[in-house]
Amino acid sequence: MKRHPLIRLLSVAVAATTLAACSSGGAPTAAGGTFTVWDPYPQFDATSAWAKVVDKCGADAGVKITRQAFDTTDLTNKVLLAAQQNTAPNVLVVDNPVVSTLAEGGVLKSNADTGLDAAQVAPNLLAAADVKGQVYGVPIGANTLALYYNKAVLTAAGVDPASVKDWASLDAALAKVHTAGKKGITFSAIGTEEGSFQFLPWFWGSGANLTDLGSADAVAALAQWKSWLDKGYAPNSVIGNTQTTSWQEFATGEYAFAENGTWQLQKAKTAGFDYGVLAIPARTGGAAPAPTGGEFVTVPAQSSPDAEKTAGKIASCLTSPANVGDSDTALTYVSAVPSVQEKQVAAQPELKVWVDAVKVAKGRTGDNLGTRYPRISEPLWGAVQAALTGAKAPDAALAAAQATAASAK
Amino acid sequence: MLDTREPVTARPAARAPGRAGWRRKQQLLAWAFLLPLVAYLVLCYGYPLVTNVDLSLRNYTVRTFVHGGAPLVWFDNYAGVFTDPTFRTALLNTLVFTAASLLFQYGIGLAMAVFFARHFRLGPTLRALFLVPWLLPLIVSGSTWAWLLNSESGVVNSVLGWFGAGRIDWLTSPSWSLVSVIIANIWIGVPFNLVVLHSGLQNIPAEVYEAASLDGAGAWQRFRHVTFPLLRGVSAITLLLGLVYTLKVFDVIWIMTKGGPGGSSTTLATWSYQLGFGSMLPRFGPSAAVGNVLILLAVVAGLLYIRAQRRQEEA
Amino acid sequence: MIRRWRTAVGLLLTAVMLFPVYWMVNVSLTPAGRMRKSPPDWFPASPTFEGYERVLHEQLPYFATSLFVALGTVALTLALAAPSAYALAKLRPRGHRALGFVLLVAQMIPGIIMALGFYGIYVALGITNTAWGLILADSTIAVPFAVLILTSFMASVPDELVQAATIDGAGVVRAFWSVVLPASRNGVVTAGLFSFLWAWSDFVFAATLDGGGSMRPLTLGIYRYIGNNNQEWNSIMATAVVASVPAAVLLVLAQRFVAAGVTAGAVKD
Fold this sequence. Notes:
- The structure holds 3 protein chains of 3 kinds.
- By secondary structure, chain A is an alpha/beta fold.
- Chain A is 49% helix and 12% strand.
- In chain A, the strands form 3 sheets. A 5-stranded mixed beta sheet of chain A has the order 2-1-3-11-6.
- Chains in contact: A-B, A-C, B-C.
- At the B-C interface, helix 1, helix 4, helix 5, helix 6 and helix 7 of B face helix 1, helix 2, helix 4, helix 5 and helix 6 of C.
């Protein structure tokens, strides 16, 4: 009957693909002596420098390492689920604003318990992991935001990058670029944490504080973004842009400025045009405090204090000044340790702008905001979206956001 | 399929003794056939459902989620959900999204099914190619549509520009975001309707059409008075399943607009995800509550369908 | 003449429907600097094959796993659904209506809720990060639908056919295997087709239950190109293109298989 050839085809296909799929590698099955490391770097496979450092640190601590990489937006939930089932990883590399949430949830062990040494790390970078006086983890590196600019576009418009020192001069530069027929600035104002992240340098640079979203300073920052959209200096797509999409817009060579982060440095070099970097200006001059990006190496709670100590050793090894330089180069992060920062600048002088920016950067969960930050950030990006789409005026949008943030649990 | 006819192996009126025992044997055999399915249903669907209801009745913090001990708060989460201003928006968007998607998916799917019902060269191949959208992971189809509908660099706006129309902010304007996700969802839903309706059309015997043509009916009349009524059963189930699947749709909307801007494309499904996984501080209780409201809506639709079916059988 | 007209219209309709797929191919060949060009390039002006190179070097194991999981899901779904559909369509036990309703309700549960529910059980049973676990999970997407559609196909198999077999001495099981199942071949292929497609494109179950396994499907393989701060779009699109081609071939073959048996009862021109 005609049905049988289909079944035969199916069985052959199943057999063939089983063989092929099984050849994709086996997972180590040893119980004791294998530690798991979870990180948000799926772009690094087993042959990458990062993976090699992880293996080396495991070997130094006397254990074999199984590494799993997750999409960063997924990682928090995975960790929570795993912790609930007592299958949390031994070492966890996680985005810094999440550390306080995990620590308060009892998922992480403090550095005092695990022996992790954070003494060499710059205090402003450590603040994100400081919960009620205890520190939970060590930064692997830091990144932050600055303004990339396209030299050719600025020259053609008659703008000197060195003249962009505050908001007024930035607006003037954008106006000139717009008159010259090019596009002004691109950034990300998407309705997720990325949007808040990109808005914060302007928010803080205006003098506003996250505890009062409705202040006049905050409204000024949002009004500035809105004015850029209205005048055509920034494209409408910023409302839906991720930082990657925004970078792609800049990479077309049509834009004068792009607000983006340290991690784009490698891409900038292959962009095909001459670029420069300058610090995001504060409203009345100087560099605006930008939010710290970058992950922390943390140690989740485990079945035995010995396991926690070993995990602590692995974490220390990953973040030690000797090893962290290679990881930071691979990630294009700035090191969190000042002495290593100097080495980085010596090797790559263009990193100086970034190192300076990182020195004045602020943690989002710092200022003792901790787990209150997510409840503030969400209404904040909502307000940005409402204002940029014209649904609400900036002051009304931020007032509503402050009301939500204040009443949130 | 849910009907009241007698089991096919039963015999008519005049029965020999022992028929009742034979009938019982049939019933037992039937349930033996069904036993694996029933066990599967209880384990694979019953358990997650019960877990979700439990999640929605408790107040979870991160600590109690991980370590246990979340207190029962009964219907507080539901009260919170119903009094949240987002609920009205999400509910309205869900209804609009579902109705518009179903209407066009079914309509276009039916038109395509009728078109492909006739044999012509490359017909089967083209029909198979219509299913290619289903091969793509939703992150890819969602992202592709986001690309097409980008305000600045999207090809749709570029084509509109040829005809002199102004730029439409498909994904970034509160007035258009829902329309955009509906369009993408229709595109994703047409293959399902096409395949099922086409199968239904194949089951209509040719003699019925011949009889109609002999009576002098034209193509459109044949469709209206012969094909369409005979498709009623298949149409009903296609629409019901379409409803159930569309209510669950979340990936496409999340990838294209994240439910925004400003909640303008938030549906109950995306809201549930946003509460549970979309922020850095998850709220599992309310998220599960919204999920259960969604399931309840679908159950109501299912009950209405069964009632309509039963009324049709009695007619 | 009419047939050729139909073919032309068919090609046009298919082209319109597949335009987004064409765009996906277009993006996969576009270098980074031209991706957000306004207005966009309709043809890749200076194509880059970098995405495809990466895919061929990195994605083949994921693709093989996807194929294995999808075919396994088809097998499991049909094995569960076909006998059940037969019982519901032909044996019609008491309570079949309630079961039909339960099957409907089963499909109403959003995938993320299912995945979270499974996670605990899977950890307890130790089947997280296995392809078999994923097959079981993916089958839950397809089984209720498969039962419903097979029931409707089997119900339309003429009762006389079954009674003839019974008179010849065939038992219920024999009637199922040798009469009803072959006669509802269209339904079997349709159910199998949908199971394959749903399992192939599943992401929620794969991400939650097989996130760290050594055999992971390509929906997770794509995440290799979604770093913590960056997304490699031409690699992502290239993965989708490369993965879709063999699966599309399978689809075309399956459809031919369905069409081949349907000559009696086909609508006449």
